[in-house]
């Protein structure tokens, strides 16, 4: 019987992933942990600073953890405010997780990567699995390093590490934590509240995105796949959908014809310009049969439906 530790459980993805894991494994088999306690929570929650290796090791021992989902990180936009601190947090937490997994016989580890590993040298359209990685953010640099460390632990110690290069994740259940793709969540909140939106990216900035349902399903499918099928031990490219601020505005206008977006690009524009526009995820499709389910119109319908209930 597996016992699962989720680190960074109060964040955008962790909030939703923990609920799915609890449904699958049971409330008593999932240990949610974070620096900050969520507002409402059912199940086991432990306060944890994952930069502290001893605290992490004690938790893994106490609960006899067999799988770790390590989601704690400082994201692309917030990371630029303090690059050295971002590097320290992102790298130290990832290394602590790999080391505790190695020394305490944790059977499987998931540490997500990001489309932020790519930089200006990668092809912008259908960005391939294997290409030059020259990220321009400290967040991207830390993700490339973490991918290489995961590969190292797999080859050197046989650790079963798995990872996805998530695109920007879009959710109604939780707020994003300081990235360059955050506008694509904020825009729905504004529209549903009857307000116009000011976008920090320009109208034709195309970025890869994914709806939360697809992101969670991809994560669980990857983690459930037979180990022999996982041929990429850095991180798999993952595609959901791709759109520009102008296109998401048009999709929202089908529900709210008077909704308008203004454009006021800031420092995040440069980050977005260095990232892919569309992703080639053939390796994930081939190896563990990944296929996304949500396009822009289906996602928009669901986002507006759920957020309308929330703001009622
Ligand atoms: P988030 O910022 O919403 O949540 C991260 C959580 O980590 C926060 O709750 C924070 O309190 C916690 N945390 C930070 N430092 C910690 C520490 N030292 N110890 C314990 N907890 C700590 O991030 P998210 O969007 O949920 O992303 C989760 C993972 O997925 C990250 O690794 C991120 O890089 C990756 N990712 C996310 C996206 C996205 O669009 N959300 C896209 C690509 C990759
Ligand atoms: C960000 O914008 O930093 C994240 C990501 C794509 O990694 N959403």
UniProtKB/TrEMBL annotation:
InterPro entries recorded: Epimerase_deHydtase, NAD(P)-bd_dom_sf, NAD(P)_epim/dehydratase
SUPFAM superfamilies: NAD(P)-binding Rossmann-fold domains (SSF51735)
GO MF: L-threonine 3-dehydrogenase activity
Pfam families, per the entry: Epimerase
Domain NAD-dependent epimerase/dehydratase positions: 4-228
UniProt-listed GO biological process terms: L-threonine catabolic process
Annotated transmembrane regions: none
Family: Belongs to the NAD(P)-dependent epimerase/dehydratase family.
Protein known as: NAD-dependent epimerase
